[in-house]
Amino acid sequence: MELPVVDFSSWHDSQDGAYRQRVAQELVDACQRVGFVRITNHSLPEATLNEAFGWMERLFALPEEEKMKAPHPAGWAVHRGYSWPGLEKVSQTLSTGNDEEVRKKLREVPDVKEVYDIGSDNNASQPNQWLPDDILSGFRDFITSFYWDCDRVGKEVLQALAIGLNLEDENYLSKKHSGNDNQLRLLHYLPVPAQDLEEERVSRCAAHTDWSSITMLFQDDCGGLEVEDISHPGTFVPVPPVKNSIIMNVGDLLQRWSNDRLRSTNHRVSLPGLSDRIEGPGRMTRERYSIPYFMSPDDDAVIECIPSCMSEEEPAKYEPITRANYNKMRASMMY
Ligand SMILES: O=C(O)CCC(=O)C(=O)O
Ligand SMILES: [Fe+2]
């Protein structure tokens, strides 16, 4: 499986309808075949991305007690703030009724990463957990503007998807996203003995699909992301990092929205891609930083089959559902 590449250069300022249609078609083809695509020449400046990685390195380098001044609230309802290593466990498990036992079992193989989650300050149900500003002065301002930069790029991608899906309104998807329900994650995977990962005593991020409409991922040069080849289930293919490109993937909600035409593909993070990323006699993996940005429709947005994705032969498979109810169904096993 080759990861498809879509070149977005001049997407946002081109007046050439045929050109836009071609890019949009390539994007939709990739989302149907693979569910993952590398977007190059997008409109997020290199300097902005470098700055984002710089801030996250400074954030995670803070002493534990400082980071704990913005802790992730207990429980699963609020998804903001700092999560220390082992707190979060990504999984595909849905609630069974015996949640405590399932939770304990899932944590026998801890995820060795720390996370800082950020959303929109306009989202009252998901209050941001900011550090006191004197701890990392400037962080909040930069990250807030980065959040909205990412939202802008994400909406360009949603527009391209709408055009590629032959929707009359190119804002059909993006207008259900005010931007206030997106989520920005700063992820720091700690160094760990490669052998512990190989023998599955610990994990970095276990195989999962994302929930939202689309995810855009920025990664450092360490590697480790692997994507399932949907034509060979069970086979995971490394997606090596390419500086400044965005890895975009379809989430479960967009798969449902598109009547399963666009695919939400399993992915995971394990060993770094190259052996030079494993160091010393203890074979420690290098640390890794990544930034996923999840685009999510608004709470009350009703997700019902995209008109161009159904026909008489292919009727809508799913009932309409609000985004809030969809998330409720998915969230209860995370914390
Ligand atoms: O760190 C990565 O490269 C991927 C993380 C991821 O898949 C997620 O947070 O959903
Ligand atoms: Fe993911």
TrEMBL record:
Domain Fe2OG dioxygenase, chain residue ranges per copy: 180-297
User: What PROSITE patterns does this protein's entry cite?
Assistant: FE2OG_OXY (PS51471)
Asked if the Swiss-Prot or TrEMBL record annotates the protein with the keyword Metal-binding, the reply is yes
Q: Enumerate the UniProt keywords alphabetically.
A: Iron, Metal-binding, Oxidoreductase
What Pfam families does this protein map onto? 2OG-FeII_Oxy (PF03171), DIOX_N (PF14226)
UniProt-listed InterPro entries: DIOX_N, IPNS-like_FE2OG_OXY, IPNS-like_sf, Iron_ascorbate_oxido_reductase, Oxoglu/Fe-dep_dioxygenase_dom
Domain of life per record: Eukaryota
Q: Which spans of this chain does the record mark as coiled coil? A: none
Family per similarity comment? Belongs to the iron/ascorbate-dependent oxidoreductase family.
Q: What is the protein's name according to its record? A: Fe2OG dioxygenase domain-containing protein
